[in-house]
Amino acid sequence: MLRDRPACAAALRHPALKSSPGADSTSVLFLDGDDHQRIRGLLRSIIAACEPLPAHVRDTIERTVFALRGRTSIDLVADFARPVAAAVTGALLGVQLDSEFLDHLEATAGNLEIWFDGRVDKRAQTAGLRLALALNRATPAPGSGLAALREAGTLSADELLVTPVVLAHAAYENSMNFLGLAALEVVQGRAAGDLDEAAVRALAVDLAPARYVLRQADEDVELAGTSVTAGTRVAISLASAGLPFGMGRHACPGSVVAVAEAAVALRALAVVVGGTPTVTDIRWKPHPVFHGLAAATVRPS
């Protein structure tokens, strides 16, 4: 496990540390080299269309949060983080995301388990297949992310099935977890100031919704003064290194959108909950990589 920032930054940029756990995949998360650059470049161009955050997306976020006014209790995940992340993900893809779709999307996080014990999470695999089929059948809005993926002409048939699911999960899971964590900071009075984008980015550094990433040495290398043999898996802490969005070729391409959506949502939430809300029933997700709330009940003041 690498923890200090210089060592983590060097490892994230190291060409011999690969993103594949050893299984064949068309997911951009597990690719390196030309295929990774090709798919990532397409995803980056899609995400760039939401920078700065379009007015209609800001309006959707504010409507979602201000709809909570008058509630005697608010679950920071079910009532706030989940619907906000879903609204932005749906706007990016150009499709409406229902509750069943979101359940499957959250289940796909289990696909990372292959890094830990080499086994495939059957539930996560099934959820991913259902999502791929649902997105393949969907009719996206013109000019949307899903439409752009289909129209690009640079993805293979397999990549065209997998990449929309990867985009949806990346846009949704980390944002939902960060929104929940940051909301808890707001309601407990630990997030002072105007909650502008600079303050929200600083919150992301402190909270680190993605705790670490794993890489596999493709050859013998030296990392932080330690010899690492080919085939060794290396854990790189994003949390302790202060790199919530990663670094290098696999850095999060949507960090600007994630920060912008959180700033809008958190400012609205601060208005809704008032100055002295109370928080009970705080529960945490058990996932080793994705750090987030499972639930937290807030009673507005």
From TrEMBL:
InterPro entries: Cyt_P450_B, Cyt_P450_CS, Cyt_P450_sf
Coiled-coil residue spans: none
One MF annotation (Gene Ontology) recorded for this entry: monooxygenase activity
Record PANTHER family: CYTOCHROME P450 YJIB-RELATED (PTHR46696:SF1), P450, PUTATIVE (EUROFUNG)-RELATED (PTHR46696)
Annotated family: Belongs to the cytochrome P450 family.
Name this polypeptide is given: Cytochrome P450
